[in-house]
Amino acid sequence: MGRRERKKAATRQALADAALKLFLERGYDAVGVREIAEAADVSVTTLFKHFPDGKEALVFDQDTDREAALVAAVRDRPVGRSIPQALRQLLREESSRRVHSNPRFAEFLRLIDTTPVLREYARRMWLRHENALAAAIAADTGLPADDAGCQALAHFALDAVTLVRGREDTEAALDRVFTLLDKGWTGTTGESRGHTGT
After folding, report:
1. Which end of the chain is more exposed for a tag (fewer CB within 10 A), N or C?
2. Domain-by-domain residue ranges, the chain?
3. Taking the alpha carbons of 110, 102, 62, 11 in that order, is the dihedral positive or negative?
4. With a threshold of 0.85, does the pTM exceed it?
């Protein structure tokens, strides 16, 4: 990166860091954009140049490379690894990296879980990658670009993160979801077609 790009990246990071610190200390709804800008020593105009979507986007600053990572997980997976397995592995590595790089990651998750607007924004943010992921799955498997199965796999793989949030053991819950995506319902339950539930 050149000097100008480095300066922009540093400003963006300073804003995201200041926002998260204030949100964790006082709660998302109690903090305004003016306070965040002041804490990062920039103007409100500068804040909106970097985060035109507003306060919610400040919480999820690390999303910019996610779509490329999702596509790469499908395209570059090792021979013998299924697409659901590759996507689960990516999520596992992301989670591990965040936990180890940020000692306040548990607080960050709690902030999202207890703030409805952030929960909904997180869900929308994940699902906006659905079309790119579905296209990568279709291209990798040789299926038509509009194949419903590819779209469904992309949708449910991305929605799994939201689905398991707040559960006692999210990693085990994600494993369960991705095993279902990988093997299908009967492959995970042993249910036979003749079972009536009585």
Report:
1. C
2. 3-53, 61-187
3. positive
4. no
The token pair at 180 is: 């279902």
Token pair of 97, please?
């990296």
**Residue holding tokens 């480095």?**
6
CB 164 within 8 Å of CB 145? no
At the second CATH level, the architecture of 3-53 is Orthogonal Bundle (1.10)
Answer yes or no: are the C-beta atoms of 158 and 130 closer than 8 Å.
Answer: yes
CA 114/CA 131 separation, integer angstroms: 29
- pLDDT for position 77: 95
Contact 72, 142 (CB under 8 A): no
Query: What DSSP designation does 77 have?
Result: P
Write out pLDDT tens, residues 14-29. 998 999 999 999 999 9
